[in-house]
Design a protein that fits this description.
about 270 residues; alpha/beta; seven-stranded parallel beta sheet; two-stranded parallel ribbon; 13 strands
Length: about 270
């Protein structure tokens, strides 16, 4: 590991990464296409303007820094050119991918089979092509991340607003705080060129989640009018071994306990009612 870390593409997950990373690295930098606007909470010297499609911004990345890549690795030619320009082979590089890389939507088996890192993935997906280029040619550690939730990204609101409806489709989730810890474990302990599935290890159907939220919090939901795929059941054993090697474990294994914490934090933010 280097003494510094650069987060390429600082969005929601970076809010949880930054305070943890600052405990491990002497310097932590974050990038955005518009850093002064989007990264105003950071010190000016931490903010870096970076746009993969604008090569003139590539030189702004510090030359001796670990990298955490947090946005889709597209377009692939820009990914390739940046990888060579930034000498990514000489860096510790973790790339955040998605479990959507696993193409299981046409499966008729129910419940769907467990998917580990040896499962086939859809190489036609542009971001998967970029991730695989970085993994196979530049030693990137790929995290295939399940649905991210946490404060201000609350599944309760997804259901309450009708964004998600009841269905038999399986969903896999990971709390943003756990994802941040996994990213740092991958930087510290991950093996170059390795894929790790990131999930809390308990796939649930939207039907089960909706019914539990209605029973415990009175949140009503609708039934999906459209046919749904079976979804996926993501296995996370390799990820758990990585965390264990780093002296860590998942903090939010229980979705509903995590939602209670999010609700309590939201009420505290709102302050006392008048």
């Amino acid at each position: 590991m280097h003494h510094s870390l650069t987060i390429l593409g600082s969005g929601y997950t970076a809010n949880f990464l930054l305070p943890l990373a600052e405990q491990l690295y002497t310097e932590v930098f974050a990038t955005s296409r518009d850093p002064d606007q989007r990264l105003s909470g950071l010190r000016r010297e931490q903010r870096i303007r970076f746009d993969l499609t604008q090569p003139e911004t590539w030189r702004l990345i510090p030359p001796a820094t670990d990298l955490l890549w947090c946005f889709p690795a597209v377009p692939i030619e820009s990914v390739r050119q940046f990888a060579e320009t930034a000498a990514l082979r000489a860096r510790q590089l973790v790339v955040l991918g998605s479990t959507s890389a696993y193409d299981n939507d046409l499966s008729t088996e129910y419940p769907p089979p467990w998917i580990d890192e040896t499962a086939a993935f859809d190489s036609r997906i542009p971001r998967v092509q970029g991730e695989e280029l970085l993994r196979s040619h530049y030693g990137a550690i790929t995290l295939r991340v399940s649905g991210i939730y946490g404060p201000h990204r609350n599944p309760m609101e997804w259901i309450r607003t009708g964004r998600v409806a009841r269905s038999r489709k399986y969903v896999n989730l990971i709390h943003a705080e756990d994802l941040a810890a996994i990213c740092l474990a991958a930087l510290r302990r991950g093996e170059a060129g390795t894929v790790y599935n990131v999930s809390d290890g308990t796939p649930r159907t939207w039907d089960d989640i909706c019914r539990t939220l209605e029973r415990r919090w009175g949140i009503r939901s609708s039934v999906s009018p459209e046919p749904q795929s079976t979804g996926k059941r993501i296995a996370n054993q390799r990820m758990c071994e990585l965390l264990k090697a780093d002296g860590m474990t998942l903090h939010y294994k229980d979705l509903y306990q995590a939602l209670e914490h999010i609700q309590e934090a939201s009420l505290n933010e709102a302050g006392p009612s008048r």
